[in-house]
Specification:
By secondary structure, the chain is mainly β. It is built from no helices and 16 strands. It has one domain. The N and C termini lie close together (8 Å).
Length: 169
Amino acid sequence: MIVLFIRARLENVAKITLPLGHTYTLTVKDSTGEDTRQGVTVTSSHEEELPGSKGTANFALKWARDSKHVASLNVKEIEKELKVKSKEKIKGYYTAEDEGSFVGIVAFECRGMDVTGWQPKDGFIVESTSGARFEDVDLSEKEWMEYDEKLGESIGIYDLEYKLQGVKV
């Protein structure tokens, strides 16, 4: 499993989540070669049959046209905290208590490919410390600011960072 971990500075933000079925924009690499594909979009709500198999995947491709092997990827949305041996948390959301730490928000099960990059886009759900909810937040600029009427103050997400890391679950 390759887990997407995020870290950010938060101002009056209690929680950042992504909805189930969110579309992730990734860079993937052939796990046995140098071939890469950028801008690949994957979502758990899309399934395709794998040729020559009874299985399905959220995304599949052949690295070479004449290849008999199909590389595949499945999105594993995290609905409850996963217990892993590393010190990082994998829980599917990021909170004010997590500030300064990397937290896993989604996992990708890959066969024949590795996830090497992520491009944050829109679709994030942000909950402020007052309980106000902001939907379809765009973090493509790695920063976001808004005014919370209930709180009477600005809220924001700054310096969004990510890392992709292989994890044994």
